[in-house]
Structure formats: structure tokens, C-alpha cells
Design brief:
The protein is of the alpha/beta class. The protein is built from twelve helices and 17 strands.
């Protein structure tokens, strides 16, 4: 059984650092600037022999309106949904009035609370531990999340809190391998700042899971949201908006973009979100090209479609430009929608499922070679240096994305244009739209190479 732990506290006490420490890898962005974490972020870790579901939360804010109020709502939701709460205080700064407000909220929540005094490395940190007794939440556990100190004591405290709450703390013997049917379909939602990515995900899942706002840059961490669509598990990754590299000067924004790139690497499908009021910006094209180079299937989603004028002409223009500027993704679905009103959202998931099926496609070798014979008969490869190149055999070596090996004579002379001709033929004839296609060209081995002829 996995124990769900919410890591809570005021801003800049080290919640994300402890989250990463317990998860065993860097998942959340850590920065000296307060308020970096905004949405609640979930991750998984194994602490000793405990399986943990970890929830990193935003620092508690006192504002009742605006983004700070949304952040507070996300934190309170995490507390209400947790099995155990870790309440972090900064031992170097001592107890603050905001710590006292949060301690009162946690007492009223009825959840088991483990008080954690963080940043206790050195004399300055040790001297501040005694202040935390005044919060009335029991004996604090002294740790330094950054320096990996006090983790043994924290494990014991979590174990005791879980057992006191009647939770099962036995180690799970379940096999980690899941059937492919039960594995979630991993989708990364990317785009420029303020394109409507978070609003799109909230509209899909039918709840205000992610903080949204009119200003750009609301999302910083890549937030994974688990969801079930049509009986199938789905993991949606909301990412920070990515601007042109030359415009990124702030270190925090660089870290957010790096987190978005990692989300693309772990995804199967990438949804490139574009604003209908300024679609197919150069950055949109670069993001789609990046996803294709990483081998991910791509779906284009044009948000704020309700605000667009002359929708028919705009849609035709977008399809023409996509086919011309991104030929490597020719035929990728283009879905127009409004995340705010929900119009067109029902078409997005079927489009995603379609490209996911193509991304996993497996084609029989016999069918491929029948097709290769027809393609070469229609347009034979050109002769190079007076000798014709002869394609001999085509087979699929892997999927996700579909990858093919073409065996032919004089492989190093096969023109790139002919390789593209074959890839485009595969895309059209086997209906592999919206997915990258890889083709490796190899020369067959000559059985007589290196052998000397016997004297007669």
C-alpha cells in the first residue's frame, strides 16, 4: 500500500527540496526565490520499505483573491486528500506568524501531522529547533533536506504517524510491471506562454486541477495529472510555456524550460498548443519539430478558437502551412477548440488515440516488401556513377516510433530525396499520420568479400 504524504509549509522553507529527496530524483524545481511552486505536484518514492505518494504544495498564502488564493486552495486540497502531512518550518528563521496560522489549519484538518524542522545543518539551524515546540504539534524532527541529514529520524516519525492513523505500512510485494493495457497513455502538453495549456487540461478532466490566469508564466513545474478517459488511464503533463531561447535570461525560467523538455522525453504523445489569435509562430514550429526529433507522435491543438474571426479561412491556412513547413509531420491531426468554453474538446482525445495507435503500429514484413516492389517499380532509384541502386528488402525493426531498415546495394549512395519518397509512401499507404518515421539504409554483406579465388 502506498501512503500519501502532503509536504506543506510557508513559502521557501524547503518543501520542494524535501520532495525531491524523498522521491529519490529531481522532480520539482528548487530555487531560492519564494513561491516557485504553485500547483500541487505528485510524485512517487520509496523511503526505507515504505511506498510513498508524495505531494509537493505551494507555500500557504493569506490572500483571498487572485493567484495566491488559487495556490492556497491547491494546498488545502492536498492536505484534505493526504494520509499524513509533513509540516516544514525553517529552523534558521524560527517560527513566524504564518507558521502559526498553518499549524492551526493542520490541527483542524484531523490529518496526522509530522512537524519537520528543516535547514538544521550547522549551529544556526540547531539553535532554532526549540522554537518549533511552540506550535503544539509535538516534537520536531530535525532534518536538512539539502544535505540529506535526519532522514532516518524522519522515516521513523512517518512510520509512527501512519501506524497511529491505522494505515497499512507493510511493504508491497506486487510486481512493478503492468500490462500494456493498464499503463497510462503519457501525454505532454506544450506550447508558448499563455497559449492555454493549463486551461485545456482543466477542461479535459472537468475540474480546476491546475492554476490558470491571464498572465503568462503561471505554470513553472511540469505537473502530471492522472485521469481516466473512456476506461483508459491517461497521464497528462502540463508544462511551462517555452519562449525563444534567446529571450530566456532568468535562471528560474531556464529551469522551468528544462523541466518541460524532460516531460517531452517521458511522453508518448505531444500536444502542441497554439493560440488561435497568433497561431503557427516560429516557436510553435520549433516545438513541433523538437517533438518529432525526439520520436514523439504529435497532435496540434488550436485554443481560443471561439475568439478567431473567419474560422474557415484560418483553418485552411493553418493546414496548408503545417503541410508545407512541417512535412515530417504531414497529416498530423489539427484540432480547434476552446478550453474555457469546452467547445471542440471532445475531438481531442480521439485524435490523440489515433496517433498513439499509429505510433505503436507494426507492419508485416511480407506487406512491406510487396509495397517496396510496387514503389520501386513506379519510381526506380537513380543510377549513381553509372550503376543503379537496387533496394532488396524492407523490414520493421521497432515501433514507438515506427522504424524500418532498408537493405539495398550501394546504400551509401542512396539519395536523401529517395529515402523521403519511401517514408512519405509509408505514411500515405499505411496511414501513419502524425507520427515520426525512421528509416535506416544498410548495404547487404557480400559473401565473397575478402575471399581469394582458388587457382584452377
Amino acid at each position: 500500500m502506498s501512503i500519501k504524504i502532503a509536504i506543506t509549509g510557508r513559502p521557501n522553507v524547503g518543501k520542494s527540496t524535501l520532495f525531491n529527496r524523498l522521491a529519490g530524483r529531481r522532480l520539482a524545481i528548487v530555487h531560492d526565490r519564494p513561491g516557485v511552486t504553485r500547483d500541487r505536484r505528485e510524485g512517487f518514492g520509496r523511503f526505507g520499505d515504505l511506498d510513498l505518494t508524495l505531494v509537493d504544495t505551494a507555500g500557504l498564502e493569506t490572500a483571498k483573491t487572485g493567484m495566491e488564493a488559487d495556490m492556497r486552495g491547491q494546498t488545502l486540497h492536498a492536505v484534505g486528500d493526504a494520509d499524513v502531512c509533513l509540516f516544514l518550518v525553517d529552523a534558521r528563521a524560527g517560527v513566524t506568524p504564518l507558521d502559526e496560522v498553518f499549524a492551526d489549519i493542520l490541527r483542524k484538518s484531523g490529518r496526522p501531522v509530522v512537524l519537520v524542522a528543516n535547514k538544521t545543518e550547522g549551529r544556526a539551524g540547531r539553535d532554532g529547533i526549540s522554537d518549533s515546540y511552540s506550535l503544539g504539534l509535538g516534537e520536531p524532527v530535525a532534518v536538512s533536506a539539502e544535505h540529506n541529514e535526519g532522514m532516518g529520524e524522519l522515516f521513523v516519525a512517518i512510520m509512527e504517524a501512519a501506524q497511529a492513523a491505522g494505515l497499512d505500512t507493510e511493504a508491497s510485494d506486487d510486481d512493478d510491471d503492468e500490462d500494456d493495457v493498464n499503463k497510462p497513455m503519457r501525454i505532454a502538453v506544450i506550447g508558448r506562454p499563455n497559449a492555454g495549456k493549463s486551461t485545456l487540461i482543466n477542461g479535459l478532466i472537468g475540474e480546476e486541477r491546475l492554476i490558470t490566469g491571464p498572465e503568462a508564466g503561471v505554470t513553472r513545474d511540469s505537473i502530471a495529472v492522472d485521469w481516466v478517459w473512456d476506461g483508459r488511464p491517461v497521464r497528462l503533463a502540463d508544462t511551462a510555456g517555452m519562449r525563444k531561447k534567446a529571450k530566456i535570461t532568468d535562471n528560474l525560467e531556464k529551469m522551468a524550460v528544462d523541466d518541460s523538455l524532460r516531460a517531452i522525453n517521458f511522453a508518448e504523445i505531444v500536444v502542441v498548443v497554439m493560440d488561435a489569435l497568433s497561431p503557427l509562430d516560429k516557436q510553435d514550429l520549433q516545438l513541433a519539430d523538437l517533438a518529432e526529433r525526439e520520436g514523439r507522435a504529435v497532435v496540434f491543438a488550436v485554443t481560443k478558437w471561439d475568439l478567431a474571426e473567419d474560422k474557415t479561412a484560418l483553418l485552411a491556412h493553418l493546414k496548408e502551412r503545417l503541410g508545407r513547413l512541417l512535412p515530417q509531420l504531414r497529416g498530423a491531426p489539427l484540432v480547434t477548440l476552446s478550453g474555457l468554453t469546452g467547445r471542440g474538446l471532445r475531438r481531442l482525445m480521439p485524435a490523440i488515440e489515433g496517433v498513439h495507435k499509429d505510433w505503436n503500429a507494426k507492419i508485416k514484413t511480407r506487406d512491406l516488401n510487396d509495397w517496396l516492389g510496387a514503389m520501386t517499380q513506379r519510381h526506380p532509384p537513380p543510377a549513381v556513377h553509372g550503376k543503379r541502386i537496387k533496394p532488396r528488402y524492407l523490414s520493421q525493426t521497432k515501433n514507438r516510433p515506427p522504424t524500418f531498415v532498408l537493405m539495398c546495394s550501394r546504400a551509401k549512395y542512396l539519395p536523401e530525396a529517395y529515402r523521403r519518397y519511401l517514408i512519405n509512401g509509408l505514411r500515405d499507404d499505411f496511414d501513419l499520420m502524425g507520427t515520426p518515421i525512421r528509416m535506416i539504409v544498410k548495404a547487404g554483406t557480400n559473401p565473397y568479400e575478402g575471399k581469394k579465388s582458388e587457382p584452377s
